[in-house]
């Protein structure tokens, strides 16, 4: 696949995944905010009802049948800094449809080594 087509496909999958998680958060009674452009280690800040604080959600959209997901060092370290409130959301995309997000709490077992920039995990 040529680089521009790959970039467009990645953007489409990420948008569908973000939309699916935002919709799931609203159904759960929370107020999600897309902060993905801030590169803060998560994509969505979701306000819990009645002053319950925030959930910090990293969204990973994957094409149906994908076997791995890549997570950045920053995303992993953020999960360790906010262990009670960090969620890794995996959303499988089939064509133009997003499946329901799978939420993983405390997704990482150890911090990445010093020189690591990202880690691939099996789905």
Plain-language structure description:
By secondary structure, this protein is of the alpha+beta class. 28% of the residues lie in helices and 35% in strands. It has helices at residues 3-27, 73-81, and strands at 31-34, 44-47, 54-63, 68-72, 86-94, 97-98, 102-105, 118-122. Strands 1, 2, 3, 5, 6 and 7 form a six-stranded mixed β-sheet that branches. The protein has a two-stranded antiparallel ribbon with strand order 4-8. A hairpin with a 6-residue loop joins strand 2 and strand 3. The longest helix has 25 residues, at 3-27. The chain is globular and about 45 Å long.
Classify the helix fraction into a percent range: 25-40%
What gyration radius follows from the Cα positions, in whole Å? 14 Å
In terms of DSSP E residues, the strand content is 25-35%
Measured between the Cα atoms of the first and last residue, the distance is: 23 Å
* Biggest sheet layout: 6 strands, mixed
The global form is globular
Q: Give me the count of strands.
A: 8
What is the count of DSSP helices, taking H or I runs of 4+ residues?
2
Q: Residue ranges: pLDDT <50 for 5 or more in a row?
A: none
Mean pLDDT reading: 93
* Coarse structural class: alpha+beta
Q: Name the helix and strand elements from N-terminus to C-terminus, one letter apiece.
A: HEEEEHEEEE
């Amino acid at each position: 696949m040529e680089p521009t087509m790959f970039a467009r496909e990645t953007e489409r999958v990420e948008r569908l995944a973000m939309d699916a998680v935002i919709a799931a958060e609203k159904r759960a009674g929370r107020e999600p905010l897309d902060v993905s452009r801030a590169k803060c280690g998560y994509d969505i800040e979701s306000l819990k009802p009645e002053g319950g604080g925030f959930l910090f959600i990293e969204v990973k959209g994957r094409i149906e049948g994908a076997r791995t997901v890549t997570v950045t060092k920053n995303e992993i370290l953020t999960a360790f800094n906010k262990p009670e409130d960090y969620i890794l959301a995996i959303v499988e995309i089939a064509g133009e449809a997003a499946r329901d997000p799978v939420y993983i709490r405390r997704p990482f077992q150890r911090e990445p080594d010093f020189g690591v920039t990202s880690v691939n995990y099996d789905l």
